[in-house]
Amino acid sequence: MANVTIFDHPLIQHKLAILRDVKTGTNQFRSLISEIANLMCYEATRDLPLENVDVQTPMGICHAKMVKGRKLAVVPILRAGLGMVDGVLNLVPAAKVGHIGLYRDPETAQPVEYYCKVPADIDEREVIVLDPMLATGGSAADAITMLKEKGAKCIKFMGIIAAPEGLKALQDAHPDVDIYCAALDDCLNDHKYIIPGLGDAGDRIFGTK
Length: 209
Ligand code: PRP
Ligand code: URA
Description:
Layout: E1 4-6, H1 10-20, H2 26-44, E2 50-57, E3 60-67, E4 71-78, H3 82-89, E5 96-97, E6 99-104, E7 111-117, E8 125-130, E9 133-134, H4 138-149, E10 154-158, E11 161-162, H5 164-173, E12 178-181, E13 183-184, E14 187-188, E15 194-195, H6 201-206
Parallel strand pairs: 1-12, 4-5, 4-6, 4-8, 8-10, 9-11, 10-12, 11-13
Antiparallel strand pairs: 2-3, 6-7, 14-15
The structure holds 1-O-pyrophosphono-5-O-phosphono-alpha-D-ribofuranose and uracil.
């Protein structure tokens, strides 16, 4: 079964509390999503393989380590996942970026696909899927299925808030995918929104409501 990491770092919890606040405006919301993604990425990349290198310092040779040429790709689920991209690229600027477009049908809450473009060599890359909200888990599970159909083999999911229902659905659908979330909330409401959550992440990032 997939490893699940729920973050308890004080900086992440602090930023998440402001993010959830209904009084937080678009500008600050966008910055916070990026900052939280940045902090989470630090942990999500913990298992990147290292290689030994000899570095000439001004004082002599240092037997040091650098990240081995493992190739990364980040794939935000549109729209809200876009808000997390910069925070991750700050730490891994060489990563390639794919995009998967999915929206939830408002009546059924089922994901509807409208876009998919990923790096041609996705099968050789470690892939981090980004989406702040894991509600029913349908969008994340479908996005990961699409990536596997394109050849991706090594996939992680990084979200900000998960509902227990979504976490279980994603684990069941993709037991090989490690999951990183900043918070595990209480439940979904009748409209499949996360409670207490933060509302509609896409609308809050882009100011569309
Ligand atoms: C939101 C969110 C996830 C999805 C989560 O996107 O960003 O992609 O819902 O719900 P699920 O786990 O039940 O599938 P939405 O469909 O609102 O699209 P948007 O990002 O374009 O606003
Ligand atoms: N999508 C969101 O943006 N928020 C939720 O609570 C659920 C799905």
